[in-house]
Here is the input.
Amino acid sequence: MLDVCLLGTGGMMPLPYRWLTSLMMRYNGHGILIDCGEGTQIALKEKGWSPNPIDIICFTHYHADHISGLPGMLLTMGNAERTQPLLLIGPKGLQRVVSALRVIAPEIPFELQYCELTENSHTISFPDFRLEAFKVNHNVVCYGYSMVIERCGRFQVEKAVKLGLEKQYWGRLQKGETIELDGSVYTPEMVLGEPRKGLKVTYTTDTRPTESIVTNAEGADLFICEGMYGEPDKLEKAREHKHMTFYEAAQMARKANVQEMWLTHYSPSLPRPEEYMEEVRKIFPNAIAARDGRTAELKFEEK
Amino acid sequence: MLDVCLLGTGGMMPLPYRWLTSLMMRYNGHGILIDCGEGTQIALKEKGWSPNPIDIICFTHYHADHISGLPGMLLTMGNAERTQPLLLIGPKGLQRVVSALRVIAPEIPFELQYCELTENSHTISFPDFRLEAFKVNHNVVCYGYSMVIERCGRFQVEKAVKLGLEKQYWGRLQKGETIELDGSVYTPEMVLGEPRKGLKVTYTTDTRPTESIVTNAEGADLFICEGMYGEPDKLEKAREHKHMTFYEAAQMARKANVQEMWLTHYSPSLPRPEEYMEEVRKIFPNAIAARDGRTAELKFEEK
Here is the structure.
């Protein structure tokens, strides 16, 4: 199960009733945070989630509303006596930006690791999931991210039996290992059915609509997308500031065939995003104007 | 009238129910903020006060919980199209620290001015008030601040009449100007009574008790002082981390003959500071365990 919590839904500046946009995901003991603006650590605590399992923080870009909460988050993690390393992922310049911010957080008792993004797209693989970073179109270099969990096919006992494979080797094959026994090679494909549908969450903020988003969000279970403006007459403003309207986000959701879209990163001038959703749902029916703390528990399909 | 609002009362890290310690004062169109941790701009907005009048931000020291909110605050001020300069006051290193933090807030449409503190005490004078900075005792260089408003004596009409001074000059003398007329010199003292009691607010956090605090808080209308720990058995911990217990703060309030003391900068481990106030008030009766947003309107004495 993949736990997803959109900790905040604000853009530009934090407000008393709206934290800055940040996404926390929990899967198999891992914690992945995307963006960490001023107050993100409070939003997390308000939600009742701990920062301890966070082992990866991804940054879309280095505008303050997406990273200003990092020094405080690092210190809070340090105060909890964390020792495990923390991997930071973000556009080129990551180490320089983080080092500058650490002028007020110089001493932390765990290691920071850096993965700087330089290409149009990157795949960062972990044993049980991968992150896909893809460049989007803002007024500074900015990336979107997909969290992708693949799921192998069902173990087919009859095939294993037919091959004469002892039960003790089944588990390793199921986990993807190839096994050599007495000169014979057994690959997972020999005992597994067709790969089953996995899980995918795509997150993008601070961008105009792009092909890279549509491609990367293709078939996502959840597409979390910026919607800076709900008012239809703000399209020009969205273009100028390299943001999106709700309708542009919905068009991408439709093109990408996602299951569900959550809008986020609202302008401080937009207190009631719900007001525009009727029109948005004409473009993409499964669209939700997310509010702070919106949670989903994404489960693998039963079959 | 001097408006005072203790925006937050937390130390170390912001919590869902407690902003980081920060003091906002408003006087005669000026806004003075002391400390600006993560979330201070939200606390200010929650209180309904605008950041626009802030023309001075003082920092006690550069631990993150006292300055991590600065980049966001600067950007929010900039988004409100501020053009007037902002004076920053803090220990030596101020410009280096602020410049580092501005890696995520490089473009702001107003000037930053820096006043770096290097001595044991500094007086920074403005036309209608002054700030007194005084070194305290923490594990890094740290200062406390007093906001001091002096008040001249009452204008004594009979003296002005006796001197044969025309009415048009009265106002200038009352404002402290010296006037020369036909070879005669008229000073404010010639027409004003004894200086009347002004207003003083003293603020200090992140320190052991010091003589400098007692001296500088002497006779203050309001003394805002850190109380990291309420539990009497945490004195050793307070000593170790260079903080104070409630009782130590109360002893200083008593020695300094202040009118009222507000405790602040509570440890995250201290959810209910009120529990310890009975004992604290045995030392200094006018002691209050402040909560976020506590406000006072300090008025000049009527006489």
Observations:
- Residues 240 and 292 of chain B are 27 Å apart (CA to CA).
- Chain B touches chain A through 31 residues (CB under 8 Å).
